[in-house]
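User: Hey, quick favor. My workstation is busy. Could you predict this chain's structure for me?
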Amino acid sequence: MYEGCVVIEHDCIEQIIEGTVTSREHYDEVIDATGCFVLPGIIDDHVHFREPGLTDKADIESESRAAAYGGVTSYFEMPNTNPQTTTLEALDEKFALAAEKSHVNYSFFYGATNDNYDTFEKLDQTRIPGVKLFMGSSTGNMLVDQYGSLLKIFKTAAELGIVVMAHCEDTDTVNHNMEQMKKAYGDDPAVMLHPLIRSEEACYESSALAVHLAHTYGTRLHIAHVSTAKELELFPENLENLENLDHLDILDHPAFPQITAEACIAHLWFSSDDYLTKGALIKCNPAVKTADDRDALRKALTDGCITTVATDHAPHLLSQKQGGCAKAASGMPMVQFSLVTMLELVDAGVLTMERLVELMCHNPARLFRVVGRGFLRKGYQADIAIVRRSDPWTVTEDVIQSKCKWSPMKGHEYQWTVEHTFCNGQHIYHKGVFDATSRGEAITFQPISL
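Assistant: No problem, here it is.
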């Protein structure tokens, strides 16, 4: 971390000048970032933007705008839309929609099903980050529940060098727990029972199975939204060397772990104590769990167990968030507030600014082999977020850019603000002023060498 200047030419970083002496050349635009932190644009490797088919909740335009307001310049979107992104045709449709509507850079996970693993070989790995596997019942009805299919998915992905991102919750355990809670508390148990239904056991058993299968076949596995302290036992604490490895050669390096984990903002910020005040607004799958689990996840941000931080941004209509464990929809919109929330954890001493950048920018680029993004480096795309400690400001409905117009962060007072967002050299957000004409680019990936 040092003082300096970043020079942008067209869509790329032309030069980085260290020191306090500024360049005297002529520029079309000069931004005085004195007192600010200039960061790579955030790469959110886990969002649900709901298009196509669920656009009453959100769409690519609205949620990519929210991303830009939050300093997020690239996202990987999930396949549980309508139609599901489980065919090559549906994948192409999403890319076409994003090219027309997305304000920031985009790519899409291909969804695994019980019987579509034979299509993996037809995927263009320069276009997608990997395959998303639901090893647990969640929204979107994409559960892969046949053991033989799991074997085929992990084996095929390993043979092709495809990263598998897995949602891990054991469905039998979840269903049993729900049945017991309904017997005890009625058809819609109170939402504070959610972490007992989607329990530590349900998460650990499924994650342990995924790790076992990845070891068996040599599959690159990234476990999404780890929510328990117990699951952290599954991940080696050997990631400190990542920052010393080259970017695009990193997955071929013996120091890079085969199995990695993601933490999400909801599980890092909230705990089960917050159900008393937030209710179903913080209901998500996997569930927000105990304060001890939250604190263990926070520690894992710096001890090497967690590789990336994302949002699992998942908007619903506010009317769909009413009720308890059985009736309220699971998921929350967070992409606009992920960076400023993590900056508050920096202020709280949970992690350093440098580690924040590793988790939200560098490591997503490394893990998924993103070409030319995720770093402030000469020749890389000019995806940049400029943030500043600010006078306190409060999240209100008019601030929220997501189409659903609510957030569990509503009413929260922040001490940080995103002042500027650049995407491919375009100054798309400037202190509340947004360039609605801006369009992002399809992200390019380098396939893994086999």
